[in-house]
Specification:
Distance between the termini: 61 Å
CATH class of the largest domain: Alpha Beta
Number of strands: 14
Shape: elongated
Bound molecules: nicotinamide-adenine-dinucleotide
Strand content: 5-15%
CATH topology of the largest domain: Rossmann fold
Number of domains: 2
Length: about 450
């Protein structure tokens, strides 16, 4: 079986790289010529640990190729993955323009049977729309409209650990509908993922609509855990309790578990914000309430402004002449993805109040500049007060405060004495609860974590 992956972003590239590493011959198609040229030259447009090595090894061994040639790509694969973006629209619903344009493109190029596998995160009913778009093109060409099937195979990888997640999945969700190709599609998907099912079956088979909704339900559940802990943390601050102790206390309950119980300055990324919004929007369209998920989003929006609110309470609303350091820009460690990163909200808000911001991130500096330029469109002068530095300690000279916004490993154990000497006032706002409040108090550093018995 040969595989084509349409869309060479985080999901498409990881899928292509991992399947080629499992021995499949893979073609990755993207419409972005610059991206494809980079990939052909052995460069990787995104930062994802292990991805570059995996791609270059399989590229050198002839198992993976990159192209903008749609006909070549469609001819190549028995299985065609759709892994293009589904960004949020103004009203929160998912924009399916890329998915449906890929479906039409497949229909225009199809010559024999193909299994179309939708990996993009899409609202329930999208597989039907993909099916209709392909059929429409086939009918236009006077060809049989039964030459394909559409299945759903949502992706659960986490950026920063994507290769490991793909290669060692907790589960693989595959949605297939009853129809003339049911058995064939199930066999092909079974063969595709056989390597992951050798020890025990990790594939959860279901119908297409349930598979589509499973992805949203999973992300909404994870986002809800985070917002729930953020609310508990804020209450803990008001009551003089410590959310980290509470986390351990509830996580030890098997029914709850430890994952996704970390309070912080809000979640971001390309998935949680957009997928929770899309779920709410789908529910609304069907006359259903999604109160829990709605509240999850509201809490997250508030949480992103929490650190600036605290800083303002201490230093005043007018931050003109103040210098603030920021450690960590990406929405989480081990990625350069800046989509919906809380740092964007924090930095813009600091700049609007007149502060000078000096920021450091191990890999996301370039992407952060692109994102901040977008955020400050029409207020470009704000960026005159923003600069990036190449080392974490360089950000601290003469600053009034340090905000830690991403839990990169190298922020875990900094030299606090040197930091204190470098800063104008030793004041740390720890948006990821990396540090021990008591230890910092002993060092004479003012500290505010999230729900850590802060003096607010
Ligand atoms: P991305 O924006 O990084 O990549 C999408 C790619 O598709 C881009 O390279 C773009 O040029 C390409 N593309 C768009 N239209 C095309 C077309 N007509 N033909 C060929 N290429 C086209 O997106 P991503 O982060 O990889 O996400 C893809 C999907 O997977 C989304 O639905 C997302 O919600 C979902 N998802 C993402 C993650 C994640 O962590 N990023 C995890 C799970 C699921």
């Amino acid at each position: 079986m040969r595989v084509t992956v349409i869309g060479s972003g985080y999901v498409g590239l990881v899928t292509g790289a991992c399947l080629s590493d499992l021995g499949f011959k893979v073609v990755c198609l993207d419409k972005d010529e610059d991206k494809v040229k980079m990939l052909q030259a052995g460069e990787v447009p995104i930062y994802e640990p292990g991805l570059k090595e995996l791609l270059s090894r399989n590229h050198a061994e002839g198992r993976i190729r990159f192209t903008t040639d749609a006909q070549l790509a469609i001819d190549h694969g028995d299985i065609l993955f759709i892994a293009v973006g589904t960004p949020a629209q103004e009203d929160g619903s998912a924009d399916l323009a890329h998915v449906l344009s890929v479906a039409a493109m497949v229909g225009r190029n199809l010559k024999d049977f193909k299994l179309i596998v939708n990996k993009s995160t899409v609202p329930v009913g999208t597989a039907d729309r993909v099916r209709a778009a392909v059929k429409h093109e086939l009918t236009q060409r006077g060809m049989s409209s039964e030459m394909f099937d559409v299945v759903s195979n949502p992706e659960f990888l986490k950026e920063g650990a994507a290769i490991d997640d793909f290669m060692r999945p907790d589960r693989i969700v595959v949605g297939i509908d009853d129809g003339i190709h049911h058995e064939k599609s199930q066999r092909m998907m079974g063969d595709l993922y056989a390597s992951f099912n050798r020890h025990h079956s990790r594939t959860v088979w279901m119908d297409v609509r349930s598979a589509e909704l499973t992805k949203y339900a999973a992300n909404a559940m994870l986002a809800t855990r985070i917002s729930f802990m953020n609310e508990i943390a804020n209450l803990a601050d008001a009551l003089g309790a410590d959310v980290d102790q509470i986390r351990r206390g509830i996580g030890a309950d098997n029914r709850i578990g430890y994952s996704f119980l970390y309070a912080g300055c809000g979640y971001g990324g390309s998935c949680f914000p957009k997928d929770t919004q899309a779920l709410v929007s789908t529910a609304q369209a069907h006359g259903q309430l999604m109160s829990v998920v709605n509240a999850t989003e509201q809490v997250n929006e508030r949480q992103k402004t929490l650190l600036v609110d605290r800083l303002v309470k201490r230093l005043g609303d007018d931050l003109t002449g103040r210098k603030i350091a920021v450690w960590g820009l990406a929405f989480k460690p081990n990625t350069d993805d800046m989509r919906e990163a809380p740092s964007r909200v924090v930095i813009k808000s600091l700049l609007e109040r007149g502060a000078h911001v000096t920021a450091y991130d191990p890999v996301a500096g370039h992407e952060a500049m692109v994102a901040l330029k977008l955020d400050c469109a029409g207020q470009e002068a704000l960026l005159n007060n923003f600069n990036l530095v190449a080392h974490d300690m360089d950000a601290l000279h003469g600053v009034d405060a340090l905000m830690v916004l991403t839990e990169w490993k190298n922020f875990h154990n900094p030299d606090f004495q040197a930091m204190k000497l470098s800063m104008r006032t030793p004041y740390i706002l720890d948006g990821r609860n990396l540090y021990n409040p008591d230890a910092l108090a002993d060092l004479g550093i003012a500290y505010q974590g999230i729900g850590r018995r802060n003096e607010l």
